[in-house]
Write a structure and sequence with these properties.
By secondary structure, this protein is of the alpha+beta class. The protein is built from two helices and five strands. The protein is globular and about 40 Å long.
Length: 121
């Protein structure tokens, strides 16, 4: 049922190496601790987040954990710490490689996740 997503297999395997089998269209579970790749995605959409929440120059923008969804690309839901006590949840779409080039990630949603705690998704 996932034949159309075979193109993404290498990318998905590298980001989900320790997860259950991939379920196309569903969100990965359990949430994974953010790594350097996810932090890089966050860094690339930080300005868009600042604009969306009307908060210029966030001094803290640290990815905590994330889940993914395989679509015609990959959706990321990422919990991001923005100060000592607050966490937001962002959703980012990463399009597939086209002609060997990676399009920049696109911010698709921002939500307040409340106070900082250890409760992931």
């Amino acid at each position: 049922a996932c034949k159309q997503y075979l193109f993404f297999q290498n990318h998905i395997q590298s980001t989900m190496a320790q997860q259950e089998p991939i379920m196309c269209g569903g969100w990965s579970q359990p949430p994974r601790k953010a790594d350097a790749e996810v932090q890089k995605i966050c860094d690339e959409v930080k300005k868009a987040v600042e604009d969306r929440i009307n908060s210029p120059e966030l001094t803290m923008f640290t990815a905590l954990d994330y889940i993914t969804q395989v679509v015609a690309g990959v959706n990321y839901r990422i919990r991001v710490q923005i100060n000592n006590v607050c966490v937001i949840r962002i959703q980012v779409f990463q399009a597939p490689l086209l002609s060997g080039k990676q399009a920049p990630p696109e911010l698709t949603d921002v939500a307040n996740d409340g106070p900082l705690n250890d409760k992931p998704f």
